[in-house]
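pasting for ref
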Amino acid sequence: MLHSMASPIISLSFNPLFVNNKRLGYYFQFYPLMPITCNSRTELRRSFSMGRTAHSCTVSGEALVENRRDLNPRKSRKKVLRETPEMNFRVNLDQCSKNGDLTEALRLYKEAKRSNIQLNVYHYNILLYLCSVNSDGSAEDGVDFVRLEKGFEIFKQMSIDNVEPNEATFTNVSRLAAARKDPQMAFDLIKKMKEHGISPKLRSYGPALFGFCKKGMADKAFEVDSHMVENEAMAEESELSALLKVSSEVKRDDKVYEMMHRIRATVRQVSEETAGRVEDWFRSKRAAEVGMEKWAVGRVKKGVVKGGGGWHGQGWLGKGNWRVVGTGMSETGVCQSCGEKLACIDIDPKETENFAKSLAKLANKKEAKTGFVQFQEWLQLHGPFDAVVDGANVALSNQHSFSFSTIKRVVNRLRQISPTKKLPLVVLHQNRVTGGPAQQPENKKLLETWRKAGALYATPVGSNDDWYWLYAAVSSKCLLVTNDEMRDHLFNLLGNSFFPRWKEKHQVRLKPSIDGINLHMPPLYSIVIQESELGSWHIPIVVEDDLETP
């Protein structure tokens, strides 16, 4: 179906090409403001001088036991510390935080003040958190009002006690302000952080930003957004989605366009909630009114080339009502609704190089004791490779037992399709190549073949092999065979800008079948919001999916 200038199309793509285990959630988690009770707990450290005493006298067994206890001051000192009013207060307050028990926390607070226990920022942050959590200022019985006022009273007392606040303190009080429906106060508190030499975090801005958006105060929300950019607190999906919604509500088509592209660059696949807000915009009367009826085709094409494909950034193209439909994509990226082929967006080689450097820096920091530098040197000698295999993940893909034959089949298949016919690199932990199934004669022979060919690397004991196979694939600019969803804390360190794009273009997934192993290659198109030269938009949505759905 061809697009007329008067009838642009937004197609909502409900499925990426391949998924193994609901993988799309990795890219698009919401980050609600988490409990802020200070993650690090200061330990009371004491140094003890331990000496040896020679006894020449004879004593009974009972006395010896008694003397041994006396000579172990560490345990007795810890016991004394646990029994101090200060330590009891902290332990009990921690329990209140865990249980969300504000009533008991306030009782402990009053008791501590009566006992002249000196409160520090950690104690105050727990109290402020408990006052701010689950408060929206709407409780009819006044419970929320009392909770909020108590929070502000505690914050005031903190100042009287000359306790220096930290980022968590200001964020908690900002939550109190937002719950009192005062986003301006929440924003003012963020600005005060600078006076205390504190850099705001993304979570610090949530109360003010969402508060202004909820009230429809778009200009103030944009001001908060600008402040976030200045302080390098990069907005994620929940923030950008809220800004898109308020921009649409106040008919700021220029800001809607900006937010669409920021979501494209940051989020890629959108949640169903964000998709609903996108639909609301395209179905609105304002969306039908804006846009160029005639545009410079050459300039649009130039914008596409400059942007690397998939978008042009020249503004809304076409006028008239938009047709909004749900659709799917073929394996080659052809829209089943409009027939337009989506682009495969290039990754800048310089970006890959910079990512490899940052990955190596992180890996060397985390793997210092196990010699990641030696692996880099080994890779310089034996690489680059056309593919890297996460050996343990592949061997356990049948979910029954560790199978070297599965790795062998994958290795042989990759060698067949390799342009250089070179063996892929297999990364396995040291324990996997020395014990268990590795001791079987045929597996020993297989491992030795790979080792002699420079196609096997055994990561040292105590290491995390994830760093090794990921770095090898990134630095070699090659395919990575693994079903690992790469969602844990290690991969979160890599950020959500470049890594998802790299992963989409390089990860090969596998699925056991009756006749062997099926390799699911990276898609031939980029699963990301795309703006076409004809003015239409395609928005991929996060859904539960599997490898069998095209």
